[in-house]
Amino acid sequence: RAESALSEARRTGGSSTVHYEDTAGVASQLTAALTAGEFTVVYQPIVDAAEGRVTGAEALVRWIRPGLGPVPPNDFIPDAERSGFIRVLDRWVLRTACQAAASWPRHVATKVTVNVSGQELDQPDYYDQVVAALADSGLPADRLVLEVTESTLDADSAAALDVLRRLRALGIRIAIDDFGTGYSSLSRLHRLPADILKIDRSFVAVLGPTDQEAPVIAAITALARTLGLRTVAEGVEEPHQAALLRRYGCDEIQGWLYGRPGDPELIGAALAGPRTP
Ligand code: C2E
Ligand code: CA
Ligand code: CA
Ligand code: CA
Q1: How many CB atoms lie within 10 A of CB 209?
Q2: Does 73 sit in the ligand 1 pocket, CB within 6 Å?
Q3: Which of 264, 277, 273 is nearest to 98 (CA)?
Q4: Which numbered ligand comes closest to the C-alpha of 113?
Q5: For residue 182, with 0-12 CB atoms within 10 Å meaning exposed, 13-18 middle and 19 or more buried, which class applies?
Q6: Which helix (H) or strand (E) is 203 found in, with range?
Q7: Which atom of ligand 1 approaches the CA of 72 most closely?
């Protein structure tokens, strides 16, 4: 497996920004990488839990450093967030993903899911940027899902909640990512303008082959039903995990069991071709 310079630096006790030529210039170096075409977007299928039919895909960014190979997002997203570059990157990913999804076969209402950093929602022009990305790509609003993590979303920010409300009014769905891992009180969750809860991989990974019960999954799916939210489980690697999730009424499933993140053409082909078992 390709090890990034940054992971290497971390392992050997180096500073987390050691691979940047100038630690103060993180944003400018990431910007240069974007201009040089070193970022790419891959798509991981999301399937209907009951039938295994592809219903959409999550867009995940990749940084391919020349000579170093792929840098995992977890290695540069924190730097991108600290430096503010995340706003530039997220907008680029949004535009790229909308363009890709607009060309997928339309016989099913497949959605594209895009990650949004919480700090983006506080930007006054974010709503207009999303509207422009839809208009320029021709993607209908009801085929876009925006994912916000529980931990980066400031549920006390009136501006952020207002943007989410306006985006939903367009027909865009809002998903709460990594649900259950961050701090969020039930009263906050109740106030969030959301449509989907994404069940974090950590709750799926612990589901063993002989488990007949899954109390945390039971609780999250029951909560979602009560609040009128759909559920998507991430990190599903084994058939028994999918079976348990299905039993608890989880709506959609994402994970290596159904497909690894890949090129946009793979999603297009999966949608156009016959269903794979
Ligand atoms: P996430 O949003 O929770 O995305 C799911 C992560 O789980 C992805 O990692 C995906 O490749 C991985 N994954 C999916 N299925 C499986 C599975 O069955 N088993 C295992 N072990 N892993 C699985 P990835 O692509 O490395 O992304 C890591 C995180 O980086 C994402 O976590 C997300 O928080 C962030 N990220 C990725 N792309 C973007 C982006 O464009 N913008 C922002 N703001 N964040 C992004
Ligand atoms: Ca996500
Ligand atoms: Ca997630
Ligand atoms: Ca996660």
Answers
A1: 10
A2: yes
A3: 264
A4: 2
A5: middle
A6: helix 201-205
A7: 26
SS3 label, residue 182: coil
Contacting residues for 168 by C-beta, under 8 A, at least 6 apart: 174, 193, 195
pLDDT (0 to 100) of residue 3: 41
How far away, in angstroms, is 150 Cα from ligand 2 center? 11
Which residue CA neighbors atom 13 of ligand 1 most closely?
Answer: 235
> How many helices (H) and strands (E) would you count in the chain?
11, 9
- Classify the C-alpha dihedral 116-121-122-128 as positive or negative: positive
What average pLDDT values come out for the chain (277 residues) when binned by 10 residues? 43 42 73 96 96 94 93 92 93 97 80 93 93 97 94 81 96 93 74 93 96 94 95 98 97 96 84 61
Alpha helical stretches, state H, 70-112: 73-83, 85-102
Q: What is the pLDDT of residue 13?
A: 37
Q: What is the ipTM of this complex?
A: 0.97
Does ligand 1 come within 6 angstroms of the Cβ of 224? no
Q: Model pTM?
A: 0.90
Q: Is the CB of 200 under 6 A from ligand 1?
A: no
Mutate to test the pocket of ligand 1, among 91, 92, 115 (most ligand atoms within 8 A of CB): 115
CA 62–ligand 1 middle distance (angstroms):
10
